[in-house]
Design a protein that fits this description.
The chain is of the alpha/beta class and about 300 residues long. Helix content is about 40%, strand content about 15%. The structure holds beta-D-ribofuranose and calcium ion.
């Protein structure tokens, strides 16, 4: 039986590739895509989700969610993803529409409909997930698992301490990390092991398909910021790591740690504070991704993206 997932995202180059991987994988049944503001504003992230769905020829339902964080002011990552949030390839005007209703309502409805079966896969700010937990606390014990991209056990990328998705809405992250739901975290310490260096990008292009070429062009744009700011030859495909974990957990090495969110403003605002050496005596609450077999990850991506024409 495929794992039922809801992909909550803010596309986003790597979100788009995570969606491609999820929708091409028989191990997963994507009940729906819920969209949150993040890399760019909600108007663009929802538009981008529709574009990606159209390119993939999918009919998966897409719901718009929160357009801002719970408490703090919105930040955005236009500098990384470009003005549209999906800069690089030509983006067609999508013919499909968003579903009626709010993403948060959809999450609540699906978790209640399939108790204990739904895995949430957030690859953006955690606002939609936190709102769902607050609006209908009954869902919390009924969520099978949350496998998210966000945080880091060490360095940040949006501040020295914080990773972008968590920094977007630290208060929402605090709600989610404190909920009694099995949580797996693909943070920067893991995702940075997956740079899309030119030889890997060439594998998508060599598929000789429309979607393979689209992926290559996404990755070529995504590389620019990472080259300028970090001096890397390729951008990590952060968000696809979370989806890959659900398909092939054997590619990952993980460990259980106590992780708490710093939601007070200051130098560590938005940090996922990970007790790596178990010095606090606090109960481990998060399965933290430590290592990923990057070649195996790219083999999986190329194989699955190769199923689209
Ligand atoms: C995360 O931030 C976003 O820009 C990416 O889509 C990814 O989810 C990496 O920090
Ligand atoms: Ca994202």
């Amino acid at each position: 039986m495929p794992t039922k997932i809801i992909h909550d995202c803010d596309p986003g180059h790597d979100d788009a590739i995570a969606t491609m991987l999820a929708l091409a994988s028989p191990e997963l049944q994507t009940l729906g895509i819920t969209v949150v503001y993040g890399n760019v504003g909600l108007e663009r992230t929802t538009q981008n989700a529709l574009v990606v769905r159209e390119i993939l020829g999918s009919k998966v339902p897409i719901y718009a969610g929160a357009d801002r964080p719970l408490v703090r002011d919105r930040i955005s990552a236009e500098a990384v993803h470009g003005k549209s949030g999906l800069e690089g390839p030509h983006l067609p005007t999508p013919t499909g529409k968003l579903e009626d209703g709010h993403a948060v309502g959809f999450i609540i409805e699906q978790v209640l409909k399939y108790p204990g079966e739904v895995t949430l896969v957030p690859t953006g700010a955690l606002t939609n997930i936190a709102l769902a937990m607050r609006m209908e606390p009954k869902i919390v014990p009924l969520i099978r698992q949350i496998v998210l991209m966000g945080g880091s056990i060490d360095i940040g990328n949006w501040s020295p301490s914080a990773e972008f998705n968590i920094l977007c809405d630290p208060h929402a992250a605090k709600i989610v990390f404190e909920a009694a739901v099995p949580l797996m975290m693909c943070g920067l310490n893991l995702t940075h092991q997956t740079p899309a260096i030119p030889s890997r990008v060439a594998r998508f292009r060599a598929l000789g398909t429309r979607v393979g070429e689209f992926t290559a062009q996404l990755l070529e744009f995504f590389r620019q910021h990472h080259r300028e700011v970090f001096g890397w030859e390729g951008a990590p495909i952060h968000d696809a790591c979370a989806v890959a974990f659900l398909i092939k957990p054997e590619l990952f090495k993980t460990g259980m740690y106590n992780v708490e969110i710093e939601a007070n403003e200051g130098l560590a605002y938005g940090r996922t504070v990970c007790d790596y050496w178990h010095v606090t005596g606090k109960k481990p609450n998060v399965e933290v991704g430590l290592e990923i077999d990057a070649d195996g990850f790219y083999d999986l991506l190329v194989e699955r993206i190769g199923t689209y024409r």
